[in-house]
Amino acid sequence: MTRKLCTLADLAATGAKEVILDDNGARISIFIIKHGDGVLGYVNSCPHARLPLNWQDDQFFDVTGLYLLCANHAAYFDTATGQCVRGPCKGESLTTFPVDLDGVHVIALS
Ligand code: FES
To answer: pLDDT tens digits for 23-68?
Structure first.
C-alpha cells in the first residue's frame, strides 16, 4: 500500500515539510525537501545530539536556502546527501528517509 505523506504544494512555503509518522506506536518526525525536480526525505534527528533540527514549523533551510540547518547548535548539512559540512557533527550525516513523487503527492518508499 502506498503511503502518502503530503503534497508537493505543501513544500511551497519553506521548501520543506515536516511529517509525523506513527511507527507501531512510536512517533517519528521526518521532513521532506524539494530537490531539483524531485524530493528527498530525512529523519528529523540531528547526528550531534539527536534533537529535531527545526525550532519552527517546516523551517529546515539556512537563510541562503542552500543548506539544511540544525537550529540547536548551527550544524549545516548538504541538501543532496545530508552530510554535515559545518558544525559540531561535521562529517556525520542525517538519516535518509526514502520518498518519491507520485503525481502531486510525496509518497514513502519504505
Ligand atoms: S543538535 Fe544539531 S547541531 Fe547540536
So the answer is: 899 999 999 999 999 999 999 999 999 999 999 999 999 999 999 9
Residue 87 CB less than 6 A away from ligand 1? yes
Q: Domain 3-108 has what CATH class?
A: mainly beta
Map out the domains of the chain as residue ranges: 3-108
- Cα separation of 5 and 44, whole Å? 15
Distance 48 CA to ligand 1 centre (A): 5
Ligand 1 near 46 CB (within 6 A): yes
- In our burial notation (b when 16+ CB lie closer than 10 A, e otherwise), range 50-69 reads eebbbeeebbbbbeeeebbb
Neighbours of 80 (CB within 10 A): 10
Residue nearest to atom 1 of ligand 1 (CA): 49
